[in-house]
Amino acid sequence: MRRTVTTVLAAALLAGGIAVTAAPAQAAPAKASAASGVITCEPAKLRQDAAQLDRKADELNALGERDAAAKAHRDAEDLRRHAKACEDAENNS
User: Fold this and answer.
1) Which long-range contacts (CB under 8 A, 24 or more apart) does 73-80 make?
2) Distance from the Cα of residue 82 to its chain's centroid
């Protein structure tokens, strides 16, 4: 009996703790763009970020960090691909 009461109290405290910690997150207002489902895309910014990553990759390559440089180049290419997809989506809409 004593163990059952302890288990029930522990469960109640845990559930109350989850409810208390979840309440502030639920009470926070959502951003208008996230609520409406609008995705903003800035191809120029994406390309600028890609160029910055390429410069970083060149610096890493000069320092002998080949793996990190390759990852930075891949990330830059992903940004360029995303920028192209954004432009294509804007042109097709």
Assistant:
1) 76/49, 76/50, 76/51, 77/50, 79/46, 79/47, 79/49, 79/50, 79/53, 80/46, 80/47, 80/50
2) 15
What are the pLDDT digits (tens) for 32-83? 444 556 667 899 999 999 999 999 999 999 999 999 999 999 999 999 999 9
Categorise residue 37: left if φ over 0, alpha if ψ from -120 to 50, beta otherwise.
left
Q: Which ranges in the chain belong to alpha helices (H)?
A: 2-27, 32-36, 43-62, 66-92
Axis crossing angle, helix 43-62 with helix 66-92, rounded to the nearest 10: 170
